[in-house]
Write a structure and sequence with these properties.
- The protein has helices spanning 18-24, 27-39, 46-62, 69-94, 102-119, 124-149, 153-172, 184-188, 201-228, 235-258, 264-282, 284-294, 296-301, 306-332, 343-355, 368-386, 391-418; strands spanning 177-179, 334-336.
- The longest helix has 28 residues, at 201-228.
- Helix 1 crosses helix 2 and helix 6 packs antiparallel against helix 14.
- The protein is an all-alpha fold.
- Strands 1-2 form a two-stranded antiparallel sheet.
- The protein folds into 2 domains: 45-193 and 269-405, ABC transporter involved in vitamin B12 uptake, BtuC, CATH 1.10.3470; 197-262, no CATH class.
- It is built from 17 helices and 2 strands.
- The protein is globular, with a radius of gyration of 24 Å.
Amino acid sequence: MSNTTDTPPAAPAPAVDPRLLVREEGLKGYLAEFKRKVRGGELGVLPVVIGLAIIWAVFQTQSSHFLSATNLSNIGYFLSATGMLAVGLVFVLLLGEIDLSVASVGGLSAAAFAVLSVTHGIDPLLSVVLAIATGAATGMLHGYFFAKVGVPAFVGTLAGNLFWNGLMLSLLGSSGSITLKDTGFLHLVGQRSFFMGSDISGAYILAVLAVAALLGSSLLEQSKRRKAGVPFRPTSEIALRSGVLALLAFGAAFMFNQANGVPMALVLFLAALAVTDFVLRRTTYGRQIFAVGGSIEAASRAGINVAFIRISVYAISGGFAALGGLFFVAQTGTSNLGGIGTPNLLMMAIAAAVIGGTSLFGGRGSVWSALLGGLVIQSIQTGLDLLNMNTSVQYMITGAVLLAAVVIDSLSRKTQKASGRS
């Protein structure tokens, strides 16, 4: 019989949140964390930022006017209409679904606005509200057939695309076109409307507001996380992030002031991005959207009303399609089938969301994808226009960029799965 006594096994060392280690190591820790994320397939917006830089560099070498203040201002203005459609599509893509009706819904809503305000003389502001309500209602209908009846989203929204295009033609009448007046909401988002007019302080006011919003929200989050005893960003990191945003914001403000100022269409688009980003990242409803997109079964077991999430998301998509339609007719001054309702615009909106970083497989993405992807697509279009190149080249280049974005997303997911981070 042995005299030795069995010693109990040593207690395992408590797990340490890797974010704490990163922040204790300072800049070295952040670089290590960045490398770990890249190796694990978490690329974030890195591919689209690199791609955008390459596109700008190539076009600038071909035309010195490309990075001029006027041209960049035009890019910011014209991406707003497609961007609005892309915002709604981001919500749908987060569910791992698709909405093929956004262009026709936008066209129908714009036609409804034209008929109400021009043909029947209804107050323009009320007409805008009714047009947006029309888009949201059509989206809700798509969501109902998908969530309650079980019609695949691809088929249901494709049928909606055909039906709403036909209804738009019926509303526009035999002429197929209604000319709109440059007043009210259309003037607000039109090409000749700028934030605070020609006053250069307007752009700088927006820059101050953007930096203040980031700084305030970051400090508030830091305070809440500190009180809760969970990892939080140190003040030095918050100051660095705010400083980088300040450089970008004031640089953009200076650039816009070299042209005519900040287009109101872009201001409203950025405001929409800020609001929807808050909804997705800071509200229970937003977290439920990500949960449903990640796993329907897990979301249902967690008590999430999956049908409600699906229907409401499609309603949001329809509402933003209507806004996109109104922005588009404000740019062209005419509501017709050859503009907002075309399949080309639908493809561009989907491409903007996906190229910007929102996954086609659901559960991963951000509304800021609509801005980044829109910048890529509009930069390609504007650059080719400056070079007087055929539209067919634009389609080919955009298609290649879209394929590259999907390939990167697929490889990223495989890498994450292999590394156990999926």
